[in-house]
């Protein structure tokens, strides 16, 4: 029963959702291009460029008058045969870097782009330092670290003889 | 003891991050430097509001420091700004208006009603000069030095306090 009412509600609400979506689209004019490739570039550019009046809307999504002006300029420049880069430059020279959703890599933004990689390198160094220190500590605890070359060789000889001995004993036991 | 202090490093980094982000919260996201600072005032060829047959271009702004104010009859804050602009004109500041995306009739009526502080108002019905200036909402003001270079940009309306605290000192600075 509950499922049934939920379905009914959904069906009743559907036209509202569809219509409001249509209304939102209707506010933004359609640009016609002869070349289908330009349509795609227009879509890309208007979603990459940011409306200067709005906090977080691309010019392709915004209803504000300035976004409409910018869309019209993007379309005009595309028809003029300008490259994406040239069109972006035209917008940045007027509205500043704010107009780009992806900040460009230059002398003022290398920190912004480089910081994540820098942090990874620092993190790796810290982990490496911890691991190396722990390994050294373990070596010291196992006692080998304190021996000189002569003692170490003696230790090796003793342990190998012991191993050989135990091996021999085991073999004795196994052979009836 | 030294080991203990090292443990505080992450906390310190965290504190720096908190201060950085907290300051960002209080910042006005609309307050951005114009992309046109220290650049030539864009070229234009527009008629004046008063006389449709009188064409003006960039040479209008050469020779003395000028405050270019972008306004429109449709813009409510422009009305609030007019008393301050009149006060600036009284102080001897040269003002040039840009009647942005307006009709001649409405623009003239606006000046009749609220006073006319401008030596001349350029008529920009399509917003082309506004676009080249990167204007995304009137009122906006640009201080242009005697060589026609943009030196200061004021977004939004000039408050009575701004007149004495910001605009007049800037004008003095660039007059020298």
Automatic annotation (TrEMBL), chain B:
InterPro entries: Periplasmic_diS_OxRdtase_DsbE (IPR004799), Redoxin (IPR013740), Thioredoxin-like_sf (IPR036249), Thioredoxin_CS (IPR017937), Thioredoxin_domain (IPR013766), Thioredoxin_ResA/DsbE_sf (IPR050553). It comes from Salinicola corii. Keywords: Cytochrome c-type biogenesis, Disulfide bond, Redox-active center. One of its GO terms (molecular function) is disulfide oxidoreductase activity. It is found in: Cell inner membrane. Gene3D superfamilies: Glutaredoxin. GO terms for cellular component: outer membrane-bounded periplasmic space; plasma membrane. Belongs to the thioredoxin family. DsbE subfamily. It is a single-pass membrane protein. This is DsbE family thiol:disulfide interchange protein. Pfam families: Redoxin. Its main location: membrane. GO terms for biological process: cytochrome complex assembly. Residues 35-176 form the Thioredoxin domain. PROSITE patterns: THIOREDOXIN_1, THIOREDOXIN_2. SUPFAM superfamilies: Thioredoxin-like. It comes from the Bacteria.
